[in-house]
Amino acid sequence: MSKREADWKRLISRYETYQKDSFTHWFFGKMSKEQLGQFIYKHSDHHLKQFGVD
User: By the 8 A CB rule, do 31 and 22 touch?
Assistant: First the structure.
């Protein structure tokens, strides 16, 4: 596993243990944990598709 892949998996696993009820994004402002999860999914999906990873 490459360092980048390991870093990515580590960041994703941090979300699994995220305990706060909300998160303040620098651009979007306050987001619920559910909104944060949706944002992470959509953002990740966008970049994976951008680079041809399906």
Answer: yes
Stated pTM of the model: 0.66
Query: What digits encode the pLDDT tens for the residues 2-54?
Result: 898 899 888 888 878 888 889 999 999 999 989 998 998 999 899 889 988 87
Contact criterion met (CB below 8 Å) for 23 and 33: yes
CA–CA distance, 20 with 22 (Å, rounded to integer): 5
H/E run at residue 2: none
Residue 8's nearest CA partner among 42, 33, 39, 40 is 40
- What is the amino acid identity at position 23? F
